[in-house]
Amino acid sequence: MNTPMFFQRSELRAALWGFRREFLVFGIFSMVTNVLMLAPTLYMLQVYDRVLHSMSEVTLLALSLVTLFLFATMAFSDWMRSRVLVAAGMRLDGLLGTRVFNASFASSLGEPTANPARAFNDLIEIRQFLTGMGIFALFDAPWAPIYIAVAYMMHPFLGIMCLVFAMFQAALAWFGHRYTIAPAERARKAASEAQAYLHSKLRNAEVLEAMGMVPNLQHRWAVQHRDYLRKSSAAQTLTHRVTAWSKFLRYTQQSLALGAGAVLVIDGQLSPGAMIASNVLMARALAPIDMIVTTWRSFISARGAFARLEQLLQDYPEQDAALTRVPPSGSLSLSHVVASATGREEPILKGIELEIPAGTVVAVLGPSGSGKSTLARVIVGIWPQVSGEVLLDGLPIEGWNRFELGPHLGYLPQDVELFEGTIAENIARFDELDPEKVIAAARSAGLHEMILRFPKGYDSPIGEAGNLLSGGQKQRIGLARAIYGNPALVVLDEPNANLDDAGEVALVKTLKELKGMGRTVVLITHRPSAVAVADRIVLLRDGRILTDGTRDEVLSMLRPPAPAVPTPLAVVPT
């Protein structure tokens, strides 16, 4: 039976609901702890009203031993509930860590400006709140009425006074909830924007330094940073104001409670022991509410983190790990494909229709800005805003499990990105190393001899983002990575942009090998040597297919007409 829509929980809520047993155990230990919090009050009453009157040391010893046992039990209960929360926090991280990683990675594909680390910060913030003082205050707050009731039993006036101060504290907590959320959210957003701006510029630090652009960009960052400081200052000012009022109420309550108890003692309505005990009891009754006010900011941050993480997991659902398909042969079909970009009114690709049988080598040509790189990303399924159909072996590309499809797909982007590790690890896509496959891919890309000249050969580290390699070396390693394992579909975006003559020869050799093995290759290039290997040529212009045909047909269309040979003038005898 299907669950009604309004009873369905989000993925994050369902994960937290799975911890209901831990929260139940935590609640039981909280009950024991809060009940035993009455022990100091009862001990004071007995000492002042019984021991001092009877002058019995035995009674004092017995009371002290019983109270000591209750304190030990309370400390054990408090320690156990802390352990329950810490264990729950670790299990929550283990349960959602991989899921958040995959969703944040998918979001960075859909939104290039997204910060994947933000999702992990949100998960950490939720876990820290669940194991911090805020959750203790929430579980201790329901016991405040019990303490108020005990104070009322000592004397109705003390109970009423405690209730009034509790209402003031609750009103202060409500005020903090109502008026501090928006400023805190504005400050968080401003901080995120300033951090993202700085991070994006630091990725190009060499260019900025070389062309003297640092002062100009520093000025723009300073404007954003000052905006963040202004909004953060406003949020902190309001939060500190609420905290200050909370302290004022707490100290006022303690003094007035002691003064009211003294008046009742003078009038003979209360014993001195009850006066001191009631003061401690009232302070304990208001402590959870005061703690809620103090930790309100962390609660707001955790609630915002929860909302963002919940939306992230909802926008990027987990792919079915049990979904398995027959390995693809590499046939491609694009129907009515339109690719758009945020902030751009006109689509980049406009109604692309393309059929590529398995085993075909297709060269995509066109001027800059015609949509060639976008087409490559659409084919491999990483362009976020696409309408129409992109089918691989008759199945939508987005319907494939990416972890399953990955070994059957090779992609070399125009801007090659390598990752910190060894040459072999980068070629093997950081999967379990298969030396034979790594060497075979390197040989196909014409890399083997070059790699052997490195000090550690295939085990040579390449540095962060491959900064120890030249542009041509990075491109050839990227090519070897793309063809690692002989994938059925290989998409190469300007693979010879940084290659020398030897690299060009190796690329042509690689294309011929892929063609000989019946692999489907989509090649974006302008070099005649690479185009000569293609079976078909697709000519793009302004996001549309201008020409699609065999290599010889399209090349003959692109060749300029031969100049007309002038007809020799006849010599007329005079």
Q: What's the topology here?
A:
Blueprint: H1 11-17, H2 20-36, H3 39-54, H4 57-110, H5 116-130, H6 133-140, H7 144-154, H8 156-202, H9 205-210, H10 214-266, H11 272-294, H12 296-315, E1 332-339, E2 349-356, E3 361-365, H13 372-380, E4 386-392, E5 395-396, H14 402-405, E6 409-412, H15 423-427, H16 435-444, H17 448-452, H18 471-482, E7 489-493, H19 501-516, E8 520-524, H20 528-531, E9 536-541, E10 544-550, H21 551-558
Parallel strand pairs: 3-8, 3-9, 6-7, 7-8
Antiparallel strand pairs: 1-2, 1-4, 4-5, 9-10
Helix pairs in contact: 2-4, 3-4, 3-11, 4-5, 4-12, 5-12, 6-11, 7-8, 7-11, 8-10, 8-11, 8-12, 10-11, 16-18
Mean pLDDT: 81
CATH class of the largest domain: Alpha Beta
CATH H-level superfamily title of the largest domain: P-loop containing nucleotide triphosphate hydrolases
What gross morphology would you assign? elongated
What is the CATH architecture assignment of the largest domain? 3-Layer(aba) Sandwich
Record the strand order, biggest sheet. 6-7-8-3-9-10
**Residues in helix, %:** 55-70%
Number of beta strands: 10
Return the structural class: alpha/beta
Low-confidence stretches: 1-7, 569-574
